[in-house]
Amino acid sequence: MVTCDSIFENQVVVEKEKLSFRASVYAIMIVDGKILLIKNRSSGKYAFPGGGIEIGEPILDALVREVKEETGLNIKVESFFHFKEHFFYYDPLDQAFHSFMVFYLCHPQSFVLIENEKIDDIESESPEWFDLYSLSREIVQSPLREIYDLIKERIIDRET
Fold it and tell me: How far apart are CA 127 and CA 101, in angstroms?
């Protein structure tokens, strides 16, 4: 049995045979004291733009594609930031995942965000630039709070 974090911030215990492997990649974009986040439709919490890597797709190509689908932005990938292993339960479809999540620091090539009806993702909506220095970690989806804490430690605290 494996304990997974659910999208609704509960813990769900599943048989390990129920797990699917999922590799995913996410962009951390910080510009002029603002950080880009997208809202998760199911939970109402925020996450970093990104998502699943398709079979045969190079990781950075997946990152560029996912960010474009969820935000409308073209990006320049700058550097690796963090790797996170995570056991995740997606309540709406009763699916469980053993996830490998990779995070990169990126820079947008423009700042015009896509309208909700044009977002090509079932869970993503409302991309928004948040003030990095007043952002509450509680609005961030629970498994990503660790990444928020790392951003605070590595970027925010060094600047102040």
Answer: 20
* CA 137/CA 149 separation, integer angstroms: 8
Report the CATH number that the domain containing residue 77 is assigned in CATH: 3.90.79.10
First to last CA, the chain: 44
| Cα–Cα distances in angstroms (integers) from residue 124 to residues 21, 70, 80, in the given order | 21, 6, 23
Counted domains in the chain: 1
Q: Tell me how far apart the alpha carbons of residues 150 and 11 are, in angstroms, rounded to a whole number.
A: 23
Segment holding 65, helix H or strand E: helix 59-71
Instruction: Note the pLDDT tens digit of each residue in 62-96.
Output: 999 999 999 999 999 999 999 999 999 999 999 99
Residue the block writes with tokens 């911030």: 9
Query: In whole angstroms, what is the distance from residue 89 CA to residue 155 CA?
Result: 30
Q: What is the pLDDT of residues 26-38, one digit of tens each?
A: 999 999 999 999 9
Range of the domain at 133: 2-159
Position of tokens 């998760």?
A: 40
Tokens of 60: 């950075």
Judge if pTM exceeds 0.90.
yes
